[in-house]
Amino acid sequence: MSGFDKVVRSYEEAMKGLSDGMTVIAGGFGLCGIPEGLIAEIKRMGTKKLTFVSNNCGVDDFGLGILLEDKQIKKMVSSYVGENALFEQQLLSGELEVELTPQGTLAEKMRAAGAGIPAFYTATGYGTPVGEGKEVKEFNGRPYILEEAISGDFAIVRAWKADRYGNCIYRHTAQNFNPMAATAGKITVVEAEEIVDPGELEPSQIHTPGIYVNRVIQGNFEKRIERRVLAK
């Protein structure tokens, strides 16, 4: 990797610098658009006491769920538990700290961090446990709570296509949290299905400009279906 070329050749190089106790922002929704190889590398590294900010925590044996097996995650900031039995078990036993955050608020926390906005007001969560202990202010007679932006030491995202300069395009629903997550990391690593040369991506179609990206790696994705339902 040199100059504007941000492509790295190994997952070890992609996640270089990640250490115990760091915060990682992860793109994806369920198993859609998750950076599978980067998560597997964190598993291999054995990094502990991590805080993960992601919509959910994968499933028991895939996605972020594999990091729960060796208790590598200390805290999850997410929107729901989903169908991950191990996530539920560790939450209820007190082994895992969980900060449940409405999906729109979570997305805006990431986006605000990337935009340099330290906090914002939202009506979502007011009058519920989400709003407890948070500053309240009225606008036009309606109460809003103050939510702080959230950034990570690392951000890991999945792209459909990326060029060597780090410009990214996400495909269909795999876009989900990825564009916001990509802006919220001190070091942003993109795992792409395809890496192309600069100039091959249509500028008007780029979702994440390369200025937000530090490293790009070619991925090989399983694209597992979270729940398969077949007609009888």
Instruction: Tell me the series of helices and strands, N- to C-terminal.
Output: HEHEEHEHEEEEEHEE
Number of strands: 11
Radius of gyration, in angstroms, nearest whole number: 18 Å
What proportion of the residues is helical, as a percent range?
10-25%
The count of helical stretches stands at 5
Mean of residue pLDDT? 95
Query: What is the CATH architecture descriptor?
Result: 3-Layer(aba) Sandwich
Distance between the termini: 52 Å
Count of discrete structural domains:
1
CATH fold label: Glutaconate Coenzyme A-transferase
Low-confidence stretches: none
Sheet with most strands: 8 strands, mixed
Task: Provide a short characterization of the protein structure.
This protein is an alpha/beta fold. The protein is 18% helix and 27% strand. Strands 1, 2, 3, 4, 8, 9, 10 and 11 form an 8-stranded mixed sheet that branches. Strands 5-7-6 form a 3-stranded antiparallel sheet.
What does this molecule look like?
The structure is a single chain. The chain starts with 10 loop residues before the first helix and ends in a 14-residue tail after the last strand. Helices cover 18% and strands 27% of the residues. The strands form two sheets. Strands 1, 2, 3, 4, 8, 9, 10 and 11 form an eight-stranded mixed β-sheet that branches. It has a three-stranded antiparallel β-sheet with strand order 5-7-6. The model has no long low-confidence stretch (mean pLDDT 95). The chain has 232 residues and is α/β, with parallel strands linked by helices. It has a single domain (11-123, 151-218), classed as Glutaconate Coenzyme A-transferase. Strand 1, helix 2 and strand 2 (50-53) form a beta-alpha-beta unit.
